[in-house]
Amino acid sequence: MASLFKKKTVDDVIKEQNKELRGTQRQITRDRTALERQEKQMEMEIKKMAKAGNRDACKILAKQLVQLRKQKNRTYAVSSKVTSMSTQTKLMNSQMKMAGAMAKTTKTMQAVNKKMDPQKTLQTMQNFQKETAKMEMTDEMINDTLDELFEDSGDEEESQNIVSQVLDEIGIEISGKMDKAPSASRNNPSASTSKADTISDDEIERQLKALGVD
Length: 214
Hints:
The chain has helices spanning 10-52, 55-115, 118-180, 184-187, 191-197, 201-211. The chain is mostly helical. Helix 1 (10-52) packs antiparallel against helix 2 (55-115).
């Protein structure tokens, strides 16, 4: 009972209108189908009268056929008009819904703008940017420090290994050379001494001639 006194919304009115238009379109289609059947029957009747040689009947039926075809063509025009009205109704409904959505969005944006303080928002964004920059600098410093620590320890260890390796190689070479080198002191301990102390007779004779002694 309450539904009888309920006020119809725009959507309800549009739905009813679309329903009526669809019903009208179906009725037009049925009428056209009936006219097409009549057209075929009338054509057959005209051929029958023509074969019988009844010219007067043929003329009357021909005029009726022309009127019937005009009526059928008018159904196409009416159907096109109904389709156009249905399309316009749907378009208007879509536009109304879009306008309603825009109105709701506008109200929401107005409410948000009232609660939002532009200065505070700007300050918050600036603070966020500063803190982000600080965090990036801190991370960079920590990473640089860790890299230096790892690089220093690694370089020192590597340098120590290289020095030890070089010293070992030098020691091996020296010991090898010392082992292979001939030892004069072991073979003939007095060889160098006797070579330095012994003077040959020829040398004595040469020195005396230089002094003018025969």
